[in-house]
Amino acid sequence: MKMFLGMAALAAFALSAPPAAGQAQAQAAPDPAMQAALSAQVRAEDAARDAYRHPAETLAFFQVGPGMTVVDYMPAGGWYTRILVPYLGPQGTYIGMNPDVTHPPAEWMSKMADFGASFPDQVKEWLGEGGAKVIGINTNAVPEALNGTVDRVLMFREFHNQYRFGWLHDDLVAIRKLLKDDGMVGVVEHRAKPDAPASYTDGGKGYMREKDVIALFDAAGFELVGKSEVNANPKDPANWPAGVWTLPPGLAGATDETRPKLLEIGESDRMTLLFRKRP
Fold first, then answer.
1. Which member of 79, 107, 183, 235 has the greatest number of CB atoms within 10 A?
2. pTM for this prediction
3. Comparing 66-80, 81-95, 106-120, which segment has the lowest mean pLDDT?
């Protein structure tokens, strides 16, 4: 961590006074390693979503730096993989982590059963050789040697799935074991309104209340370090009957009449939270 004091100092400022989205972008200008990762040709299609996901600013807020060991929870199609593996560099380790394959839904888990063996090869297909060491694990099959070695765990827009499918307890227990004593968890999640009813915030609509996410982490042994509004979108009313998938990029149920308005709103309003493992 000492090798990355500049980024850590920047993130410390963000924690003490979370900026508005536009301000955060100005404060968290990418360092050369980040700029190289973001501008790589392999991200030609990914880059269209940078305007909504703010990867450089988000990772700065999470105090992620080259040489770290970082868990990316449910890397799925590899959007953040293609940033983190080159950014962490040859001294770093990138760990893709999927849920316990014995949990529901069965149709999802059947696709994740060989994740540990297949994921490193998938990353090579995306990125070739070089960058961080790549490991794939499932929550129910974490090698004991990895426990206590992880600097950061990153959870991008998956908390609602962890909550609604019953993965959350086992995931957070495993995450606590993986983290070093000063390790932290960065969370980006679709944000429901504070007064949203329980029927809307059970995970099935994709949105969670910020205070509920914080409370669940607290109960699992994590303290809130700070918040950022870098991924906020005040245009999102967060009350779509069909859930967050109404908005881009899904545009579920969009018509020729509604699509322009949805595109103008953009992607969902998102909380960005940083937690530290409690003793």
1. 183
2. 0.88
3. 106-120
